[in-house]
Amino acid sequence: MLPLRKKRFAASLVGFVVVLAAVAWPFTKAHMQAVAVLRLVGGQPVPWIITKMVAEPVRTEDVQFTTAAGVVRGRLYLPEGHPGAPGLVVLHGVHHLGIEEPRLVSFARAMASCGVRVLTPELPGIKDYHVDRSSVQVIGESTRWFAGQAGGPVGVLGLSFSGGLALVAAAEPQYRPDFKFGLAVGSQDAMDHVAAYYLTGQEARPDGTTERLTPHEYGALVLEYEHLEDFVPKKDEAAIRPVLREHLYEDKSAEKLAEAKLNPRQRAEAVVLMDSNSTTTRAKLAAANLKHVEEMQGLSPHGMLQTMTTPVYLLHGQADNIIPAAETLWMASELPGTALQEVLVSPVLSHLDLDGAKPDVWDQWRLVHFFALVMHAAERK
Predict the structure, then answer these.
(1) Which of 34, 145, 184, 213 has the largest CB neighbor count within 10 A?
(2) How far apart are the first and last CA of the chain?
(3) pTM for this prediction
(4) Closest CA to 119 of 136, 97, 141
(5) What is the pLDDT of residues 322-333, one digit of tens each?
(6) Nearest to 150 by CA among 89, 66, 99, 81
(7) Phi/psi at 81 (nearest 5 deg)?
(8) What is the SS3 assignment for 93?
(9) From the centroid of its chain, how far is CA 123?
(10) What is the three-state SS of 369-380?
(11) Cβ atoms within 10 A of the Cβ of 357, count?
């Protein structure tokens, strides 16, 4: 009798382990995928066992599709072993390379290698350093198109200002059904608060404390480029805009060529424009913020999040000095509990790069776990 009981116990134990493994595997797999994605994006080798278990070859396909926002150019990253894989839209940040930006390409390919079909649509406004309503429509229409291709709602991951615009699109009734979830990385809650941060170097958090961090010049320069008419005489806009554009593009030789074409007056105006700490420029920034406050509100999730039904994940770099992390904390405080899935402010990140202060093991684990939750959400049918 005793040997028979032992056999039954052993059989039950094996059955329990099999069931536990079956239940736990999706979460284990998601964490392995998260490790693979983060290491690939960080330019680090992926342990061979993880590569063998969760990574697969990826092919790319350039596409163009017609929408209510016009013809959208994009690129698909397709896992070769999963032709019917769930879809994820990945939106580039404010950068002149758009969908060719190396960090975006690396991230999209890494996500696809873990079994997710990825679409990176080009946002012409964002690519040209304009954060405006046209990008909200392109985001919504691209999500709708890809949802049609995937046969159901798709996840949408937006980087920097595109993340905030993605949440604005998700809040709009015509696009809401096509969003499986939204992930905003280093994104804005309220554009006018971000604009004010560029002047003050500080922003209040929801708990009443204050975040203080010296702003990167990039933020103020983007605002200047967006509304150059508020900063230089109209007759000088055409001459000065290329100087500012090439400065933002970080093309020093092209910037010098553009500067050489300026007359002495324009050159003096450009010098002041480039100095976001000058009294003159700061006064003009403050005036421009007041002038465009209503426009900025339309580009902000703030005021739209309380009724959000789309599941939302929020990630922000603790030392982000382009869009302060307080913005993500405000979004988290405004979202209903049914919509907010996870929020993480991480020292591992700066703005969009994995180059924050040297993290400890716990910080790294929290980032891996966050991305594992996102991978699990992306893979759900």
Answers:
(1) 184
(2) 48
(3) 0.89
(4) 141
(5) 999 999 999 999
(6) 89
(7) -85, -5
(8) coil
(9) 13
(10) HHHHHHHHHHHC
(11) 11
